[in-house]
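Subject: design request, 66 residues
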């Protein structure tokens, strides 16, 4: 098998995985962290609870508008 190894984090997502899921850049996700809108856990991952909090506080349109 070639290519980079895949790492599983359970239900949590890394910055890169979240960016890919949102179809945005990793820089966009990092900007949300720096602005205090998104909070990774001690491993630097985003748990389902954190994403739920973010979506709830961002409202139905969210902060992902282009």
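Subject: RE: design request

Done. Sequence follows.
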């Amino acid at each position: 098998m070639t290519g980079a190894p895949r790492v599983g984090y359970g239900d949590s997502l890394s910055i890169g995985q979240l960016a890919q899921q949102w179809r945005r850049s990793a820089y966009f996700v990092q900007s949300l962290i720096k602005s205090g809108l998104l909070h990774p856990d001690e491993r630097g991952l985003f748990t389902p609870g954190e994403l739920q909090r973010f979506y709830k506080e961002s409202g139905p349109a969210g902060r992902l508008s282009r």
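The radius of gyration is 13 Å.
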